[in-house]
């Protein structure tokens, strides 16, 4: 089960009302620093950008691969543990804008996690320590520690023993 908070809207769909929920200048600032980080070849500089300008919680020796896309509107709701690898072109979302509502949820990624390329992590999920997410997986619910998951819909492939 994803942990998201729901906010109903009246009038046009919630995306049309985005700037009444998030300041325009914040979106512009986040866009600039996310785009710089997406192509930054130096992992320590990339992590510094995330921590300093986007207020993300990023552990030591965590590696965000080329073109990782973190949430544009609420990146501060992302926490990533130590020594984790986020694969190429992965997307980490903390918001969903729908027709009649929008939802916000924290994303927590543990220590020593491996997320394969082109995966999508949806709002409100937690990924436990030492979990492995196969390439192309849509993470739509919590992943227990030491669990290998894959697919869309995501399913458990294997639970690792001690």
UniProtKB/TrEMBL annotation:
Source organism superkingdom: Bacteria
Keyword Membrane: no
GO molecular function, one term: transferase activity
InterPro entries to which the protein is assigned, alphabetical: Hexapep, Hexapep_transf_CS, Trans_hexapeptide_repeat, Trimer_LpxA-like_sf
Keyword vocabulary terms for this entry: Repeat, Transferase
PANTHER family tied to this protein: ACETYLTRANSFERASE (PTHR43300), ACETYLTRANSFERASE YVOF-RELATED (PTHR43300:SF6)
Name of the featured protein: Acetyltransferase (Isoleucine patch superfamily)
Source organism of this protein record: Pelagirhabdus alkalitolerans
């Amino acid at each position: 089960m994803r942990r998201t908070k729901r906010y109903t809207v009246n009038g046009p769909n919630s995306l049309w009302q985005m700037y009444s929920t998030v300041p325009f200048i914040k979106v512009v600032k986040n866009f600039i620093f996310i785009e710089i980080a997406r192509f930054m070849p130096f992992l320590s500089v990339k992590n510094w950008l995330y921590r300093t300008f986007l207020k993300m919680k990023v552990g030591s020796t965590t590696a965000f691969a080329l073109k990782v896309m973190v949430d544009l509107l609420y990146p501060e709701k992302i926490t990533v543990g130590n020594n984790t690898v986020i694969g190429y072109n992965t997307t980490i979302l903390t918001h969903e804008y729908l027709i009649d509502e929008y939802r916000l949820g924290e994303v927590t990624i543990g220590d020593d996690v491996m997320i394969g390329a082109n995966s999508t992590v949806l709002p409100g999920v937690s990924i436990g320590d030492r979990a492995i997410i196969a390439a192309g997986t849509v993470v739509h619910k919590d992943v227990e520690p030491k669990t290998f998951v894959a697919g869309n819909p995501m399913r458990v492939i294997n639970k690792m023993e001690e």
